[in-house]
Structures are given as structure tokens and as C-alpha cells.
């Protein structure tokens, strides 16, 4: 308002409005919520990390489903991408001040750190199992990697939950495909609780 009083000339007024708008644009992402240019670097960074995990997940799923040719190094790289972006790295990407719009990260994250961190760690543990499985399968997906190897596929998610509760030693014995499915459940579990549906 002060600007109008000290700038009676219409050209100066217009210029000052332009400057004022420019300052507003710098201060807040309000004018175009969701546009990448307006997001803080930290939010952009973690969204990129999430996208990298999603792409890596598609690669692994494609190989398990036979839609992509199995390639041990590429399979392992994809698992390592998820491992590197989950766990401690993921936990560090969501400080309290970065939560809420325009990010899709909910404020609840800061009220439920233990739960949030546990999900981030579980994704990393499963990704490690998937990564390790590629070392023992240089030429193709082995029967040991398959869902249901060593256990009944029926009720596998219940079995899976018991395994997780029992600790990581048990996770390491899971067939990679089973670990992959349990991992995706943890991605979804975190999104269901801690991510705003803005898309
Ligand atoms: C511990 C919680 C947590 C886990 C685990 C998690 N995510 Fe996310 N994810 C989030 C949150 C929170 C957001 C919203 C981030 C934001 O907008 O700032 C998000 C956003 C995303 C997005 C959207 C990114 C964008 O462009 O806006 C994708 C895709 C995604 N996650 C994929 C995954 C995949 C795949 C996994 C598992 C391999 C995973 N996430 C695991 C919490 C998690």
C-alpha cells in the first residue's frame, strides 16, 4: 500500500507493481502451485529421488514379469538405486520446515517420525535383498528368486509381515521377488499415510 502513496506517477507505479509481483514470486510459490519452478530445491530433490525409485521399480518389475530381458547388472543397479534413495537418505530429506504444500509431504511426518523412518528403512532392507540376489544370478532369474520359492504363495503377505517382525536375518532369506512385492507395499504404506493426494 505504501508503494501507491509514494509513487503517484503511473509509469513508476506500474514499475513498482512489477517489482512487487517479482518479490512475491520469490517469496512464495502461491501463484502456480505444483509448477516445478516454484518448489524449493529440497522438495524438488526428494521428488526426483522418488521418481528414480519408481523408475528403478519399473525396471525390476519388468524383468520379473519377462517384459524386459533380465540383465543382472541392470537389475542390481535398479535395486541399488532404490537402496540409496531409501533408508537414511530418505529420512533426511523431510525436515519439518519442508512439509506441507506445495510439497505433497504431509505434516504428519513430523508427528510420526518413528513410523516414517521404519518404513524408509524397510524399503532399504528389501532393496538390499533384491540387490544381493543379482549376485547369485548372473545369467537369468533363478527359481530361488521367485515368489513362493521356499514358502507357500498363499498368504504370503501374512508370512511376510511375520518375517519382517522377526528381523532382518529373515528378510535376507526371502526370495527376491517376494522382497520386491513387500517393498512396494511399504512404498504404498508410506504414501497412504504421509503423502497428500494432490495429483
Ligand atoms: C517413508 C515414506 C516413503 C517411502 C518409504 C516411499 N515414499 Fe515415495 N513419497 C513419499 C512422500 C512423503 C512423497 C511426497 C514428496 C513431496 O512431494 O515432497 C513421495 C512421493 C513419491 C512420488 C512422487 C514424486 C513426484 O514427482 O512428486 C513417487 C513416484 C514415489 N514417491 C515413489 C516411491 C517408490 C517407488 C517408493 C518405494 C520404492 C517410495 N516412493 C517410498 C514418502 C515415501
Task: Provide structural commentary.
The structure is a single chain. Helices cover 65% and strands 0% of the residues. With 199 residues, it is mostly helical. It has two domains: 1-32; 39-194, Four Helix Bundle (Hemerythrin (Met), subunit A) (Up-down Bundle). α3 runs antiparallel to α4 (72-85) and α4 (72-85) runs antiparallel to α7 (113-135). The longest helix is centred in the N-terminal third of the chain and has 25 residues, at 41-65. The protein is elongated, with a radius of gyration of 23 Å. Mean pLDDT is 83; it is low at 1-7, 23-34, 152-156 and 162-166. The structure holds heme C (HEC). Residues 43, 46-47, 50-51, 53-54, 57, 82, 90, 103-105, 116, 119-120, 123, 183, 186-187, 190-191, 194-195 line the site of heme C.
Amino acid at each position: 500500500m505504501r508503494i501507491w502513496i509514494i509513487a503517484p506517477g503511473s509509469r513508476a507505479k506500474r514499475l513498482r507493481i512489477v517489482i512487487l509481483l517479482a518479490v512475491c514470486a520469490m517469496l512464495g510459490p502461491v501463484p502456480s502451485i505444483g509448477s516445478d519452478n516454484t518448489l524449493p530445491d529440497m522438495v524438488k530433490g526428494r521428488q526426483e529421488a522418488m521418481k528414480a525409485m519408481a523408475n528403478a521399480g519399473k525396471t525390476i518389475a519388468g524383468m520379473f514379469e519377462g517384459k524386459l530381458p533380465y540383465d543382472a547388472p541392470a537389475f542390481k543397479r535398479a535395486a541399488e538405486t532404490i537402496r540409496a534413495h531409501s533408508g537414511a537418505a530418505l529420512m533426511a530429506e523431510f525436515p519439518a520446515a519442508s512439509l506441507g504444500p506445495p510439497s505433497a509431504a504431509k505434516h504428519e511426518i513430523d508427528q510420526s517420525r518413528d513410523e516414517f523412518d521404519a518404513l524408509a528403512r524397510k524399503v532399504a532392507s528389501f532393496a538390499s535383498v533384491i540387490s544381493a540376489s543379482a549376485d547369485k544370478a548372473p545369467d537369468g532369474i533363478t527359481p530361488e528368486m521367485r515368489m513362493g520359492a521356499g514358502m507357500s504363495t498363499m498368504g504370503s503377505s501374512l508370512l511376510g509381515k511375520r518375517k519382517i517382525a522377526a528381523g532382518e536375518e529373515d528378510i535376507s532369506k526371502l526370495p527376491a521377488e517376494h522382497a520386491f512385492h513387500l517393498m512396494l507395499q511399504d512404498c504404498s504404506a508410506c504414501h497412504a499415510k504421509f503423502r497428500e493426494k494432490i495429483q
